Structures are given as C-alpha cells and as structure tokens.
Amino acid sequence: MIRIAIVDDHLLFRSGLKMLLASHPDFEVVCDASSGEEFLALLPESRPDVVFMDYAMPGMNGAQATQRALESMPSLNVITLSMFGENAYYSDMVSVGAKGFLLKDSEFEEVVEAVHTVCNGGTYFSESLLTSLSQSLRSVYIFAGDSSRVDTTEECEECLSEREIEILVAICRGLSNQEIADELFISKRTVDKHRANILEKTGCKNTASLVVYAIRNGYVEM
Along the chain (222 residues), what's the average pLDDT of each consecutive run of 10 residues? Predict the structure, then answer.
C-alpha cells in the first residue's frame, strides 16, 4: 500500500480527493491537513510515502512546508497541486524538491499515474500543465562562453556542452526533435544524439524530468 497525505486548505476539494484515493486498492490515505503547519505536526506519526501539496495556503505556503517536510523525511515524494495558470509557483516547488505537478481538475487516472511515477523514482507533469509551462519558460540563463551565470550544482562529468544546453532549452519549450533541428540548422539525427546524451548526463527519463532539471539548475527561468 502507498501511504498518502493531502494538504489543501479547501475542505471540499480535500475531502473529494481523499474519497477517490481511499477507493483505490493501492492507496491508503494516512492524513489530511488544511495547512502546512498542521501537516508538519502530523508527519512524524503518519509517515506518508506521497503528499499532495497545495501551494497557496494561509500561513506557511506549499514550498515552505515541502522544504521542512523533506528535511525531516527526505524519502517523501511531493506532488504539487495547482490551478491552471499558476506557473509562478513551480520554480519554488522544483527548487525545494517537489517531484510531481498536477492540475486540480486532472482526471483521477492521471492522479494514479502521478503517484506511481514518483514512487518509482520519476518526475510527473500533467500533460496540459507541461504544455502550458513550456510555453511560459523564458530565456536561457547561460550564453556562449558565459558559464558564470549558471548554478553549477552538478558534478563535472554531468556538465552539459553549450550545444546540449541549447537543445535542452528547446526541449523545455516543447519543440520536437525535428523542430529543434530546423531551428538550429542541424540534422534531426544530430539532435537525437544530443538528446540521448543529455538524458544520460542528467539522469532524466523524460521531458518532465528535463524541465525540472533545467529549472533547478538555472538553464531556464519562469
């Protein structure tokens, strides 16, 4: 059983999500809270595997609650809940360690997929959210020859080349490999090879993970 917590200040939403999750054979809802402070008080005893975390709550926001929760329980998988258009919150949640991002009006099948994905070590973005997020990402922080503007938190062997950074940013913008090839005046096969290298260097598995990686390491901003 996957142990789940829900943190959201809207009672009706919290109750509805709790009912849906409790009906699934793989899930057990071990606590629900209306604020970050309440969740942190319940955390030591409930010990969830996954928490659905709202961002905008009275008092402590979702990023603050996530940061404190992960300090005491690093294995916790945090899935951010948001309304459409709240893109400004995602960089905060990425920076403190959230692994999943879902719209509050997502289908329940997508909620189930998100839980299983993060529990298996992956990163999950709602497809519609990923599309919206890709469209809102702004310019790259690093320009040719200027690596000083990048947060160099990765090991040297994982550092990306300038061309790989260009392609990473294009991927985050939602471009296909063919569109990237056309934009950079290179072949699609070359883009395919660079993309494979980027995935290997970063340890990412899909576009969602690459977006999180790019935001966390300062290659794109929101």
Answer: 96 96 96 96 97 92 95 96 72 88 91 95 82 64 42 53 90 88 94 94 85 82 67
Torsion angle in degrees (nearest 10) through CA of 152, 121, 179, 175: -80
pLDDT value for 136: 66
Q: In degrees to the nearest 10, what's the CA dihedral of 32, 57, 113, 214? A: -140
Write 63-70 long-range contacts (CB < 8 A, 24+).
Answer: 63/89, 63/92, 63/93, 63/95, 63/96, 64/36, 65/7, 65/36, 65/37, 65/39, 65/40, 66/93, 66/96, 66/97, 66/98, 67/96, 67/97, 68/36, 68/40, 69/39, 69/40, 69/43, 70/96, 70/97
The model's pTM is 0.77
Determine the pLDDT at residue 118.
94
Q: What is the pLDDT of residue 116?
A: 96
> Quick one: which H or E segment has residue 2?
strand 2-7
Q: Classify 38 as helix, strand or coil.
A: helix
3 closest CA partner among 54, 56, 59, 42: 42
Q: How far apart are CA 87 and CA 55, in angstroms?
A: 11
N- to C-terminal Cα separation, the chain:
36
